[in-house]
Amino acid sequence: MKSFFQKFLLIGISVTLLSLNCFPQAAKQCVTPLQDGDKVLFIGNSFTEWSGPLPSAIQSIIKASGSNLNVSFTLKVKGMGILKEYATWTSLGMIAEIQKGGWKYVVIQGWRDAIDTKDSQTLEGGGTNPDYLGWPQCQDTMLKYLKVLDAEVKKIGATTILYEPHVGKSSFIKEMSRSHNTYAKLQYDVSCFYAPVVNSWDSMRVRYPATDTGCTTYTPGSFADFLYGDCGHQNANGIMLDALTFYTIFTRRSGATLKPQFLTNMSRPDLYEELASVAYKVGKNALTMNGCIITDTQTPTVPASLSTTNLLSDFFNLNWTASTDDIGVLGYEVYKDNVLIGITSTPKFGVGSLSPSTTYAMKVLAFDSEGKKSAFSTVLNVTTPAQTSIDTTGMLMA
After folding, report:
1. Whole-angstrom Cα distance, residue 354 to residue 346?
2. Superfamily of domain 24-289
3. Where does the chain hold its CATH 3.40.50.1110 domain(s)?
């Protein structure tokens, strides 16, 4: 026999489960690749702006891809901002910016409203925000104002991208756990595309762990060392990791092998290829979890029409017709006499350190973001000219 209390408890649990079933999970939104003329609005705080800003870093990768994709990014920022401020502070103009329309995607970036309380200045006129109650009640506040922002996005026919950024380095695991918990609740109730960019940072944390993650002291060579500029803000290496993740989300391609101009801002450009590899996996997983169907049914077409320009006794430029692929060509492997000598993201390559009057057998293959490779191109035999000598006989010396 069950006691009255046990029966009452079971009834309560049943009612709770029934009420949850009355509110099914919101539909996930898929992000399709950016096309010419598309416009993207970023709304965020210094986690989107510092050492970048993020949209500029993304644009740098797009330009380096050689795709000639003509898209525009707009950034609206409030330092230390949270979703309540984005949604209610008219002085920020973020709602007004959404209402201008013409956006394909509106990227909304949260912050400490996902993990704990924020500093007291959370009212537009100053003072403490009475409905901001700390963890875990902060989740309800964040959800309330995400719904306000998302409603405006839907009015103009755009898609909300819910951007989960990295967290502070000193309590990374704890803060990431809370952040994931909050964003799970947000995407359950709001139909959007969820972009967990923090997962790229976590992958680098696992690869380069830190035993010391203090604000001023940290393990040299760890993720805490080369991704952060201070206790929480990213440096240029960190913003590149974010940008590479968004590049995959926006294009379904990897940023590997590319040479974006933004590389000059990085203190660790040697990490670029690894950052690109991590970002591609996280970006691709984000696309999959949001219901985007990613198919790679083709290998790239074979590079064709190999030719040379600027043929010298020790150097020449090798050129060819670009390959095509259903998910996009990532790069090309260049071979000289059956030996791999380099990789390039564009259909050209400078071949140096050659000998005069020598014939070299050149061939190229293409590969895509999934590692699928084309067949080799037709071999082009290139013969360097004899070395030019300068006759100094009879020259007058000063």
Report:
1. 22
2. SGNH hydrolase (3.40.50.1110)
3. 24-289
What CA–CA distances, in Å, run from 22 to 29, 43, 150? Answer: 21, 32, 22
pTM of the model: 0.81
Q: Is 338 exposed, middle or buried (0-12, 13-18, 19+ CB in 10 A)?
A: exposed
Q: What's 304-383's CATH class?
A: mainly beta
Q: Are residues 303 and 332 in contact, defined by beta-carbon separation less than 8 angstroms?
A: yes
Residues of the chain with CATH 2.60.40.10: 304-383
Alpha-carbon Rg for the chain in angstroms: 27
Tokens encoding 47: 């986690």
Which DSSP string do the residues of 112-145 spell out, in sequence order?
GGGTS---S--STTSS--TT---TTTHHHHHHHH
Strand, helix or coil for residue 330: strand
Flag whether pLDDT at 387 surpasses 90. Answer: no
Q: What is the pLDDT of residues 146-161, one digit of tens each?
A: 999 999 999 999 999 9
Sign for the pseudo-dihedral over CA of 58, 59, 63, 69: positive
The DSSP annotation for 42-96 comes to EEE-HHHHTTS-HHHHHHHHHHHTT-----EEEEEE-TT--HHHHHH-GGGTHHH
Strand 380-383 with 359-368, pairing: antiparallel
Secondary structure element (H or E) that encloses residue 248, with its range: helix 236-251
- pLDDT digit string, tens, across residues 106-118: 999 988 889 886 5
